[in-house]
Please model this.
Amino acid sequence: MTRWTWAVMVACMAGAGCAWEWVGAVAAPAPAVAAPVSLSAVQTHTLTGGDFDMASLGGKAVLFVNVASKCGYTPQYAGLQSLYERYRERGLEIVGVPCNQFAGQEPGSAEQIADFCQRNYGVTFPILEKQDVNGAQRSALYRFLVDSEVGAGANVKWNFEKFVVDRAGRVVARFPSGTAPDDAALLAAVDKALSATVTGATAPVP
Model:
């Protein structure tokens, strides 16, 4: 099967004669890109454009959040920073992922995003490059998260959705945008992710 599918000529009856129209070539859909098999296999960049070292997350629990600067949920940055300060010494990493796919609520440049996060919320956790979380250009990171058993292949619905990855590198929980950083269920998922051993795997949080 070739990548291009050629349409046949369409016959149109016009009076006693027969007119032919050449429809042309139609591109076949691009094949789906497989999700990375592990978090360590993901290649991504920092907000400033340098390589982000996924190995730095090894053995840690990680909370991934797709963030935006002009969203009703943007004040969650404050709660995320508080959560980071509270749990960082226990092995939690929070990673913000700017995304402009939801009502264009993250339109700024890397410099503007960094300045906004620092000036308004004193953010010290890592912020990655801006990336797509849905669609054909979904980033490798979000293919890993969304295509996991917990992600169930379901599109991210809005800014500030949250994915929890345990110390074993397994996605163990997913929470909607409205879940606050101090929500009891989210904290329980973080605690459980921190309790996982690096060589083991916890069961997904209901």
